[in-house]
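Incident log, support desk, overnight shift.

02:14 A customer reports that sequence design results differ from what the structure should imply. Their input is reproduced verbatim below. On-call engineer (initials T.W.) acknowledged and began investigating.
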């Protein structure tokens, strides 16, 4: 049997970074996915765990006996109890990754460490082949690390106990709510390896989908009464979320009061953003008025993100370019490059949108318009017999 899981990326509409420090944030899933296929070995002679990372052209393999010998003694794995990777395990896993001699330019080791932690914690030391493929740009603010963690955990948990999932059914199947909570908690353990000190917002929206108001681990699914059409511009400047999150924490240590004020302001912006998109807007005038207020909140949010030190020259280029067309933009995700959101008001003509995209792409950027607020993690069972 082979199981394939898919998990969506995300756009943070308001409150990134501040959410790590307890502020409210608003986040939406997007219809770009990371796919993880897991096929357990059927041959008794096969003692290999294979990981194929298609997006970075890496094929890695370990003898499962060697993995078991390299990891510290433990009471065995318990898939029902998400556990944080300890320093001792982290050092042993880093050594298993280092022996693969991965070219640094290809990919940071964190994604592979997260894989080894989730695999051995949930499935133990069973030989298998795991294939990862994504529609998301990596390291660009669209939640590729969370989509990886969620899709990995989803495939592993579904392979262990399909539970209510009917493996004879075709197509993408939804998890039961209680399974989603377990999945999200395991994915959060993967994000801790990838993000250092994650808030949990990225793995939560990749697990549950939809649009979510998130604060200190608490989530409220919200329904937007506004179209919320967003142009996503990928500046193609890759960066590392873990380092950026750490940088904001260091600035907070240097300027505690000032930064606390910024976080409080971002909390207010997110709360108002959430209230606005849920407020009833039936006619064009009401929608336009609310879209103008949303644009103002995005502009204010971007200004505060500059206070945190996570903007970048290429982000400023996108801001200036879209402002020429009286459009408002803000970075999304960890910043310092990556992706920028531009609100496309519902009355905006397609011709104008095409002009904005053409000018942005002439700067070497890549533009896309993704559907937002869709499904979260799902699995599909493909018979390989
Ligand atoms: N499809 C993938 N294949 C291999 N590694 C991946 C994949 N997706 C994510 N990763 C891992 O996640 C890292 C990128 O995570 P990072 O958190 O820095 O960026 P992001 O999640 O795309 O952006 P943000 O956290 O701001 O939303 C990559 O360097 C890699 O280690
Ligand atoms: C920058 C951050 O707020 C969002 C990254 O997409 C980090 C986090 O919340 O884990
Ligand atoms: Mg990430």
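02:41 Re-run completed on a clean worker. Output:
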């Amino acid at each position: 049997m082979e199981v394939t899981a898919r998990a969506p990326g995300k756009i943070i509409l308001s409150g990134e970074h501040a959410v790590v420090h307890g502020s409210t944030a608003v986040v939406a899933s997007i219809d770009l996915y990371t796919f993880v296929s897991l096929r357990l070995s059927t041959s008794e002679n096969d003692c290999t765990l294979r990981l194929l990372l298609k997006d970075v052209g890496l094929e890695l393999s370990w003898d499962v006996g060697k993995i078991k010998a390299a990891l510290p003694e433990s009471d065995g794995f318990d898939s029902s109890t998400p556990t944080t990777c300890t320093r001792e395990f982290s050092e042993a896993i880093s050594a298993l990754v280092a022996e693969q001699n991965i070219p640094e330019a290809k990919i940071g080791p964190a994604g592979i460490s997260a894989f080894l932690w989730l695999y051995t914690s949930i499935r133990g030391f069973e030989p298998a082949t795991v294939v990862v493929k994504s529609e998301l740009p990596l390291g660009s603010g669209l939640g590729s690390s969370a989509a990886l963690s969620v899709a990995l955990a989803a495939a592993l948990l579904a392979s262990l106990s399909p539970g209510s999932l009917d493996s004879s059914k075709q197509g993408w199947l939804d998890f039961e709510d209680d399974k989603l909570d377990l999945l999200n908690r395991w994915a959060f353990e993967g994000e801790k390896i990838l993000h250092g000190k994650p808030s949990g917002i990225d793995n939560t929206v990749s697990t549950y989908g939809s649009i979510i108001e998130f604060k200190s681990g608490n989530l409220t699914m919200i329904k937007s009464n506004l179209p919320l059409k967003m142009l996503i511009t990928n500046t193609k400047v890759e960066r590392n979320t873990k380092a950026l999150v750490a940088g904001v924490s260091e600035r907070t240590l240097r300027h505690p009061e000032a930064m606390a004020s910024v976080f409080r302001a971002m909390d207010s912006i997110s709360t108002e953003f959430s209230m606005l998109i849920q407020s009833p807007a039936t006619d064009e005038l009401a929608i336009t008025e609310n879209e103008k207020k949303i644009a103002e909140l995005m502009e204010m949010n971007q200004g505060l993100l500059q206070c945190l030190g996570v903007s970048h020259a290429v982000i400023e280029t996108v801001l200036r370019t879209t402002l020429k067309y009286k459009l408002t933009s803000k970075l999304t995700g960890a910043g310092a490059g990556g992706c920028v959101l531009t609100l496309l008001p519902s009355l905006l003509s397609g011709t104008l949108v095409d002009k904005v995209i053409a000018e942005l792409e002439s700067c070497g950027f890549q533009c896309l318009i993704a559907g937002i607020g869709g499904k979260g993690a799902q699995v599909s069972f493909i018979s390989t017999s």
